[in-house]
Amino acid sequence: MPLVAPESQVMLQYNLADPLPFFALAMTLFAIVALRYFSVVGFFYLLLNVFPINALIHRRVQPLPPGYRQRWREVRWSVISSLIFSLVATSIAALWQQGYTAIYNDFGQYPWWWLPVSLVAAVLVHDTCYYWLHRWMHRPGIYRVIHRVHHESRVTSVWTSFSFHPVESLLQASIVLLIVLFLPLHYLTILAWLAFMTLTSTVNHCNVEVYPQNFYRHWIGKWLIGATHHSLHHKQFRSNFGLYFTFWDKWLGTESSLYEDKVREVTGLKDRSERLT
Predict the structure, then answer these.
(1) What pLDDT digit, counting tens, does each position of 99-135 carry?
(2) Which of 53, 74, 82 is CA-nearest to residue 151?
(3) What is the number of alpha carbons within 13 Å of residue 82 lying toward its C-beta?
(4) Would you give the DSSP letter of residue 139?
C-alpha cells in the first residue's frame, strides 16, 4: 500500500511507469547532475588550483597534486556515477508519483519548523548509514571488487568526489532512496540536502584544508569532516570512515590518531619541518 496519497501527480505530468517518460526524465536528470558536478567541482578547482592569487595553496594536505591522468580517470567514473544517481533519482520520482514515498509538496502538510528539522534528520541518518556501508566496503573481498576504484586516488582532488565504481554509486544512492521512503521530506528540502551533499563531498576531497586554524577544536568544527580528515582515510584506509561528521569515528575509535597533528601542520599551527606523510 502507498505510504502517502499520490499528491505528486500534480508535479509530474507523465506516468513514469511507462518506459519512455522514465527514460526522458532520467536523461534530463543525468544532464542536471553532471552539470552540478562539473559546475561545483570546476569552481573549486579554479579557486584552489588555477587562480593566480591563491591564499590557500599552502594548505595542501598532500604536497603533490594529482596529475592529469588521475583527473581524467576520476571524471570518467564520475560521469558514470552521475548516470546511476540519475536513474535512482528517477526511480524515486516514479515511486513518489505512485505515492510510495514520504515526500510531500504541500507546505501546509507539516509545520514550517519541520523543514530544517527534517533536513538535519536526513543528514544524520545518511551519515550513520554511510559510515557502516563504508566500513563494510573496506572488507578485503568487497574492497577489491567495489571500493578500490575510489581509493585509486591516493591523493584526492575535487574531481575525486564522484569517482566511484558503479556498484558503489548504486549503494550510496540506495541510502537516499531508503530515507525518502520513510522520512517525510519536502522536495525542496531534498534539493537542499543534495546541494549540501555535493558541497561537502567536494570540500572533503579537495586536498586543501579550507577551515580556519583551530577550527578542529571548535565545538562545531570538531564534529565536521574536512580535507585533512578525509585525506588521511585515503592514505591509511583503516580510519576516518565518516561522510559529513566525525561522530561515529570518535565514538567507535576509528578516527586516525594522526588527525590532530596533521591538521595543525596543514593550517600552520605546527612546524612544517616535522611534516607528516
Answers:
(1) 999 999 999 999 999 999 999 999 999 999 999 999 9
(2) 74
(3) 22
(4) S
Amino acid at 78: S
pTM: 0.90
Nearest to 67 by CA among 154, 149, 165: 154
H runs (alpha helix) in 46-113 = 68-97
Helix (H, G, I), strand (E, B) or coil at 224: strand
Give one DSSP letter per residue of 142-174, joined into a string.
HIIIIIHHHHT-SS--GGGGG---HHHHHHHHH
Distance CA 229, CA 203 (A): 11
C-beta pairs of 21-26 under 8 Å, 24+ apart in sequence: 22/90, 22/94, 25/90, 25/93, 26/86, 26/87, 26/89, 26/90
The domain locations on the chain are: 7-274
Q: Taken in order 212, 254, 233, 260, is the CA torsion positive or negative? A: positive
Q: Which residue is listed with cell 574492497?
A: 143
CB 167 within 8 A of CB 147: no
The answer to whether the beta carbons of residues 48 and 208 sit under 8 Å apart is yes
CA distances 135 to 111, 139, 258, Å, are 37, 7, 19
